[in-house]
Amino acid sequence: MKILIDTNVILDVLGKRESFYSDSLNALQLIYKEHTPCVSTTTITDIIYLSKKFFANVELQKSYLSDFFSDFKIIPVGKKQILQAFSSPMNDFEDAVQAYSAKRAGIKLIVTRNTKDFALSPVTASTPKEFSNRKSS
To answer: Coil, strand or helix: which one is 80?
Structure first.
């Protein structure tokens, strides 16, 4: 199954965010093992911008992230998904773009810490902890 991994989950892992690192890392490892990890093109650009503080220099950042994303399927964001996000009942525009891009790509689940903003998403969302617990039961 293809699973979209939201920006916040990736940042949890890259930045080893104390409260979220373990759950996000566990979910990411399970996804790698049993599913196809996916990110949108907008997630890649957001991660590049937001992760600068995690790396000593730009060359190290690019090298690390190039390796990190090498096994991910990168899904495109097109004009249709942008227009769908504008007319979506979802309140967060960026999350709506993610959701409609995921739907177009045939993704069945979005793993995010922010499931509240995906309540009206056309694709089901799960927290990293919920995903990991569902896989281990």
So the answer is: helix
> For 80, phi and psi rounded to 5 degrees?
-60, -40
For residue 101, which of 42, 48, 50, 44 has the smallest C-alpha distance? 42
Give the separation between CA 127 and CA 133, rounded to whole angstroms: 10
Q: Which residues of the chain have pLDDT under 50?
A: none
Segment holding 126, helix H or strand E: strand 124-126
| Number of residues that this document lists for the chain | 137
36-40/73-75 β-pairing: parallel
pLDDT score at 134: 86
DSSP 45: H
Where are the alpha helices (H) located in 51-127, listed in sequence order?
A: 58-68, 79-87, 93-104
Dist CA 5 CA 112 (whole Å): 7
Selection from 108, 105, 86 nearest residue 97 by Cα: 86
Q: What is the pTM of this model?
A: 0.94
Question: What tokens appear for 17 in the block?
Answer: 């965010």
